[in-house]
């Protein structure tokens, strides 16, 4: 007993003892519980903590939409139900059971109307593009009924899941397919290249493969969201550690007008169909058949380089790529026997421009002084075209050149030479460049490259062709690489003559042709063509980026050069002499409303060189209006279709007549067509005659 307690009263000592007993009774269970939790249950808690893991959930972001100049949606997004396979879960399934599972899955998907084969599922499952823990996409666009079925019978399909994602939707079907392009799964090469981009890409992501989808990929692709969570072994979310919401891609508004685009595609297809109806042509070399398999058309605003329409035929349906294109479908689209529907001939097809090239030879003659007061001819001087031209002092190669059919046009000056498309007049100019001292034999090439020939235009689309302007240097190089293709590696006067009329080795894309004429008619400004007008915020619709006109160069083009050239080209569509000689497109435009909407143009007919084959000429035509300050320039090329004035000029004439009379038909989206059809059905109950008349009007408009 302590000294202090020794002197306490007995009652106090008793109270202290009671308090001590109570304290001990309280601490003993607490200590026991702590010992139980920290020692006895330690292993269980460690195991439970190990069952909790951190997962990163990626939330896909929808791509931006693509709009036309008036804000109409050309490419949208729609919901799609996707079947996936969890590779981690499937790894524990025996090989025989796996094959049976794939068979059952393919059977059920095919029964639902989406034909699927076992090798298709197996190839996706075993693809190296997906890691061992990935959920591999197998089939897209399954029905809600199948989604419910797979959920109800999940025990039959371990590792098989469904998810809702977004895919591209095309309200106007295949219209403008070459412009819009398509998306597809990332390739292995693309995976390595996008690793440098700021936006996250995963193995099963899609990326723009062509057209606007490819060129504006950075703008259209959204930024995926990311959520870092803690989950238990049952995948129940216990805690959200980090969350970054997905951000939709920006919308891209184009310069094209979908109504004009539809009209251009329809008239291009119509022109080819009419060309096929021409009777077979018999020549000494053999029989010429007008196959008219393909063509292209471009319509541009020469004031700023905006593309208003761009058509290529044959075309394709971008919907084929939405759920992953089959190998059979892809083979058809890339088969040369089907004339390569995926090829955008407006920017990738290269053609001899033929006589559409002559204004630039005329420019070369004016710019160098070959035509002028101290040249071989004055602007108004007459040159006698007898239908044939012989190269002076010619000792090697081809010495005799002629107009088509040796047609003789008599006395022609520069203007009439363009109006009648006199080859002989331009042969005389070309020979003078090559033969006379003081002139550069490459004067035509220099002029052509000034107007953009031989190089890409810089259009806002990928995979543009550059065309070709031949020179003595390029001839030597071509001969060195393939001597069997040429008689000599030397550049001959005849090569200069062929170049002067857009033949020989000259090649150009339809876009290059229309762009060069835009510079010719706007006073000398060569633009880089624009298809993209602006980038819009997907939520507010406000402009994020606006694309200004892009000037490539200002060409020296005084009125003294442009006036005689443009006057001669005005005669192509309007001139008819007292003796009946006409501009080469007069027949196509003789009843055109020139008083309301004056049009000028230039025809072209070019030969396609194919070894051991005789094929029809390519028909070309370029036109612009309304003069004198044109707002539209259009160029069309029809392959294996015949003379440009007969087959190509009517195509643009029909398009321009619609524009001139403000009668471009409104093109309906599929949803608008469906709505109209329902309205007609409802109204027909009251008046059947209304239904018949309106359906006929709709069918006529679409055809």
Helical residue percent band: 25-40%
Shape: elongated
Rounded mean pLDDT is 88
Rg result: 37 Å
In CATH, the topology of the domain at 354-561 is named Beta-lactamase
Distinct helical segment count = 26
Describe this protein's structure.
Mean pLDDT is 88; it is low at 1-5. Helices cover 38% and strands 19% of the residues. The chain is elongated. The protein has 703 residues and is α+β, with helices and mostly antiparallel strands. Strands 2, 3, 4, 5, 10, 20 and 21 form a seven-stranded mixed sheet that branches. A five-stranded antiparallel sheet has the order 14-13-25-24-23, with helices on both faces.
Question: Helices, strands, pairings?
Answer:
Elements: H1 3-6, H2 10-40, H3 42-51, E1 53-59, E2 66-67, E3 73-86, H4 87-90, H5 95-111, H6 118-126, E4 135-139, H7 144-152, E5 160-169, H8 177-180, E6 183-185, H9 188-194, E7 206-208, H10 211-215, H11 217-220, E8 225-231, E9 237-244, E10 251-254, H12 258-276, E11 281-283, E12 286-288, E13 295-301, E14 306-313, H13 327-333, H14 345-348, H15 358-368, E15 383-385, E16 388-390, E17 400-402, E18 410-412, H16 414-420, H17 423-435, H18 443-450, H19 472-481, H20 493-500, H21 510-521, E19 525-528, E20 532-536, E21 543-546, E22 550-554, H22 559-574, H23 586-589, E23 600-606, E24 618-625, E25 632-638, H24 644-660, H25 670-684, H26 688-702
Parallel strand pairs: 2-10
Antiparallel strand pairs: 1-8, 2-3, 3-4, 3-5, 6-7, 8-9, 10-20, 11-12, 13-14, 13-25, 15-18, 16-17, 19-22, 20-21, 23-24, 24-25
Helix pairs in contact: 12-24, 15-17, 15-18, 16-22, 17-20, 25-26
